[in-house]
Design a protein that fits this description.
190 residues; mainly alpha; 68% helix; single chain
């Protein structure tokens, strides 16, 4: 696979959403090519692609589904929020972190505080990646309701030091601290 698939990049640059969608549905397209097409659709904020990306969330190919969740967040269609919440809460376990990331993007874009409680619930996940993406997402749309759960999680991560920690836990700690600062700052300027 050529990481710089010129026809896809060119179609995206020229805003040819129809061509990208046709390439996405090509049965001969490899998984890596589909992931790149989906990412490009997100990068060009293709509202036209949103319905197709919602179905891509249910694709058997996990990498395509993950790319679709993030692309939906980038595109920013408010209608994708309930589907991303549902995917984050009860979708395939390996897809939940990508759904949380997409949810943070689209929720912050619209200032939609309906994402806060599901993201707070996701902080209790056993999956560190889901917790991390939920923490980042909470920092994108600061809300005082998220402060206490983030603070509690931060206290549980205090024993993690930079030198000997699992890289996933270090990322979680970084996300939690970032979001706590965002909520603190937001509270201060209100």
């Amino acid at each position: 696979f050529d990481q710089y698939d010129f026809p896809i990049l060119l179609a995206a640059e020229w805003g040819q959403e129809d061509r990208l969608l046709k390439l996405l549905d090509d049965s001969a397209a490899t998984s890596a090519r589909k992931v790149q097409i989906v990412a490009q659709l997100g990068d060009i904020f293709s509202a036209q692609a949103a319905p197709r990306l919602l179905t891509a969330l249910k694709e058997p190919d996990l990498e395509v589904a993950k790319a679709a969740a993030v692309a939906l967040g980038n595109i920013g269609q408010k209608e994708s929020i309930p589907v991303l919440i549902e995917t984050m809460q009860s979708g395939r376990p390996d897809l939940r972190a990508a759904a949380a990331k997409g949810l943070g993007l689209v929720g912050a874009l619209h200032g939609d505080f309906s994402i806060i409680l599901p993201l707070i619930d996701a902080l209790n996940s056993d999956d560190v990646a889901v917790k991390t993406e939920a923490a980042w997402a909470l920092g994108k749309l600061p809300d005082r309701r998220s402060y206490e759960p983030l603070y509690t999680l931060s206290k549980s991560l205090q024993k993690i030091h930079a030198t000997d920690a699992d890289p996933k836990l270090k990322k979680l700690k970084e996300a939690v601290h970032y979001s706590l600062k965002q909520v603190d700052t937001w509270e201060y300027i209100q």
